[in-house]
Amino acid sequence: MKNGMFDEGAATLRMRTVLEEGKVDPVAYRIKYVAHHRTGTKWCIYPTYDYTHCLCDSIENITHSLCTKEFQQRRSSYYWLCNALDLYCPVQWEYGRLNVNYTVVSKRKIAKLIETQIVRDWDDPRLFTLTALRRRGFPPEALNNFCALLGVTMSEMAIDPQLLEACVRNVLNETAPRHLVVLEPLKVTILNFPHKAAVAVEALDFPEKPERGKHTIQFAPVIYIERSDFRKDADKNFKRLTPTQHVGLRYANVVLEVKKVIEGADGEPLELHVECKPLGDAEKPKGFIHWVADPIVVEARLYERLFRHKSPEDPSEVPGGFLSDCNPDSMRVIPNALADKSLAGAKVYDKFQFERVGFFSVDPDSIADRLVFNRTVSLKEDAAKN
What DSSP character marks residue 6? Predict the structure, then answer.
């Protein structure tokens, strides 16, 4: 076998073990004519999981080898080999597999997603590998809380990702400072700006706990708001800016009133001319919106579920196979979002809440003059909120 005298699959080397009745002696080595990343083509036989698992655990002084239930039948060969070689034998414990809906966790299937360029790599934020969750911005405390909430059981479970996302929100709500970022900007010029030049205003890092700190933001005659915060025609449930309805500006303590809408050839608004009044001198607005002035340009990546069906590996639900179920809109890139300059010094994996937008984390693709943010999770919003 070692000298390459057999074809792949023509021969294997088995362990002559004493196992329960009906169990076949497990394979120790099999033939694979594949180059190794360290030894090249020197070897054409490779050890199997059954042979290496217990030996690696023993050499590394592992106390407990935790496996999912499908490895329960291999426990006897795990113990047998350690005892046959007179090695320290760790304890193997099995537990029920945790499956997450709308994704796949099989290494072979993730590799297929990478090969077909549906995802970029093992750390693509749409996956549920640990490196992917880290890149997306999931804090380790949230993963620990999620596991503690579910507990350990021998039963196989399938959990919707909403439960994990709720654990993430609970942690980030306490740890991620608030900042102002506009994803789809609409220019607003304040005709009667009350100051001679731009002024600094204070914004709280954690509005519910002012003692935890604050930062300054610029308020200027030209600001940018979310395009979705303005409508030319709106129903009574819309609580933001319209030609006939004023709105408050977060932290600026002013109320805006539309005076003119400048439109493009397609009828979409390009710029708003407004006037402002101090908050105490105007009728109380129905809502307050976020904004930025003198901003920096950043890239925002918004993620949705990678698969359209709850169980993409189930042939009865997805007859065409899991690759046919991929959501083509699972990642949306916004290349020219506008962020307040207080974010300019953010480091990779720093986490923030963009007010009224969601929780975001700095991606490793960021460079000095171009920050990239991954949306970790959206905000928990009232379903009826307009």
Answer: S
For the stretch 169-208, pLDDT in tens is: 999 999 999 999 999 999 999 999 999 999 999 999 999 9
DSSP string, 47-58: E-HHHHHHHHHH
- What the block records as the tokens of 166 is 């709720």
Distance, CA of 9 to CA of 32 (rounded, Å): 8
Q: Strand 372-378 to strand 296-303: parallel, antiparallel, or no bridges (unpaired)?
A: parallel
Q: How far is CA 315 from the centre of its chain?
A: 27
Distance CA 90, CA 55 (A): 10
Contacts of 68 (CB under 8 A, 6+ apart): 94, 95, 96, 97
The Cα 104–Cα 323 span in angstroms is 10
Q: 237-286: per-residue pLDDT in tens?
A: 999 999 999 999 999 999 999 999 999 999 999 999 999 999 988 889 99
Token pair of 109 as six digits? 């299937």
What DSSP letter does each residue of 195-223 carry, written as one string? SSS-EEEEEESSTT-GGG-EEEEEE-SEE
